[in-house]
């Protein structure tokens, strides 16, 4: 039996006896990445060329990466159980456009400290990097990173253009998707949601509404490109359809791919080319 299936069976069986122990286990599995992603061989060259630095958020050391001369900065935001090096296919293309990529490994990810992170820590990091290196001409985000970046933009972080790749729109889908993967019963799913509210994000208000990227599109003043694969089994394609419905076709362009899934879509050459072409439009628009 696979490890996930074993955990699923144990959690659901014990939940019929008492919520607290299996609820805590589910919560810890939810908030802690199972393993840290490593730099892949194909990413080594770009990763090794970066100038590295550090920030500290909530006592956690965060690794920051920079390429280029600092002009026309572009922020790259990775997703859950990922790392900044996944954007290696974009680095040279951005440099060729005269842009300067900036990225970070979130707490509990890559080469950063800590064991876990939250959307609010992502939000703080994006804001502090904007103060240090911005304003950002653009931002490119993958998966959970897209939801975090849209939150930062809605709360005032200036970004000229935004690219969402396999992006999460509804914050609540984090619980729904995790429950589906783990096969949690309804009781455990409700308990997990309560723990997120009370333990992970205390004092943050109605987190399901506040962090929903579709709620306040009027607060995001930037052209958006969304790329999503129809076969994504981690963040469903409908999440980008929700973004399209919220922001409208005049503000958001959706590119649909097939057969790439959730992770390969980020490095697919045709996707990289489309993203770079969209970002190149910023200079054309400024010159017009």
TrEMBL record:
Superkingdom, natural source: Bacteria
Domain AB hydrolase-1 as annotated: residue spans: 74-272
Molecular function as annotated in GO: catalytic activity
Coiled coil: none
Family annotation (Gene3D superfamilies): alpha/beta hydrolase
Pfam families: Abhydrolase_6
InterPro entries in alphabetical order: AB_hydrolase_1, AB_hydrolase_fold
Name of this chain's protein: AB hydrolase-1 domain-containing protein
Species whose genome carries this gene: Kitasatospora setae (strain ATCC 33774 / DSM 43861 / JCM 3304 / KCC A-0304 / NBRC 14216 / KM-6054) (Streptomyces setae)
Top-level taxonomy: Bacteria, Bacillati, Actinomycetota, Actinomycetes, Kitasatosporales
